[in-house]
Design goal:
GO terms for molecular function: ABC-type transporter activity. It is a single chain. The protein has 261 residues and is an all-alpha fold. It is 76% helix and 0% strand. The chain has 16 helices and no strands. The longest helix is centred in the middle third of the chain and has 29 residues. The relative contact order is 0.15.
Length: 261
């Protein structure tokens, strides 16, 4: 394994442990509440306006799949893994460049493209592992709390969550590698995430605006309701392709620009 990959993990170890613990706790707490929630499910489903359910991509609150979608996979779960991806990827190139430490990292006998690719690979593995935590936790806890959702459907939603993290992490890496600015990378990718989440939600509320949802990565993640309908490979490939293309473009831009040292 590359020394640069090992150093990236070593430098980020505290952030990695913190994010992993936070995502694990969030998923475990919300999944464990399902037993207590069942008795009030119909009441909560009736109380939630139909427009709000459409905005949040909640098909229902009375089924186990609807509960998982409303709690783990609809809002807070995607928010956590996307934030984790953006903050960790900003540490690959923009942060050491702004702090003046990138010169020490680039003393390794690597080309610029290899340097950027290895920093990206190290953080990409980390983000993938953290985004996969809800998959592991829900799969392990579901039988114990009475969540009767096919494991294949849980896997489909969870892989979609990973692909969503790749999408925005790739965009942030591309912007950060091209500009060397941490704030620019976070602002561009974060604004895109918020704007496209809102766009997907309001698309269904506007007459004739349903086509707008196809412009939002969140539609490719949760718009197909994978916890009820299972796998949609084309949507997952589209999400991952945006992330990969943005990351590759970032590597090329990093190779061609002046680096601040």
């Amino acid at each position: 394994m590359s020394p640069l990959v090992r150093k990236t993990w070593r430098d980020d170890r505290r952030a990695i442990i913190g994010w992993a613990a936070g995502v694990t706790a969030f998923t475990a707490v919300y999944t464990s509440f399902y037993t207590n929630f069942q008795g009030a499910a119909q009441l909560k489903d009736d109380a939630l306006p139909e427009g709000m359910k459409n905005f949040l991509s909640i098909q229902d609150m009375t089924s186990a799949a609807g509960y998982l979608q409303a709690t783990v996979y609809s809002l807070v779960g995607p928010l956590l893994v996307v934030m984790c991806g953006l903050l960790l990827i900003a540490r690959t190139i923009p942060r050491p460049e702004e702090d003046g430490g990138i010169e020490l990292l680039m003393v390794n006998p690597l080309s610029r493209r290899a340097f950027a690719a290895q920093r990206l690979a190290a953080t990409g593995v980390t983000v993938t592992a953290i985004a996969a935590i809800p998959w592991l936790v829900v799969t392990l806890m579901a039988p114990a709390v009475g969540i009767d959702v096919p494991l294949g459907n849980i896997a489909a939603a969870s892989v979609g969550l990973i692909a969503l993290a790749w999408c925005f992490t790739g965009i942030a890496f591309g912007v950060g590698a091209a500009t060397g600015r941490r704030s620019t990378a976070l602002a561009v990718a974060g604004t895109l995430a918020v704007a496209t989440y809102i766009l997907r939600g309001v698309a269904g509320l506007i007459d004739g605006g349903a086509w707008l949802r196809w412009l939002s990565p969140f539609h490719y993640f949760i718009g197909t309701d994978p916890l009820h309908t299972g796998w949609h490979p084309g949507h997952l490939i589209a999400l991952a392709a945006v992330g990969v293309a943005s990351a590759v473009a970032g590597i090329v831009w990093f190779d061609r620009r002046d680096v601040g040292v």
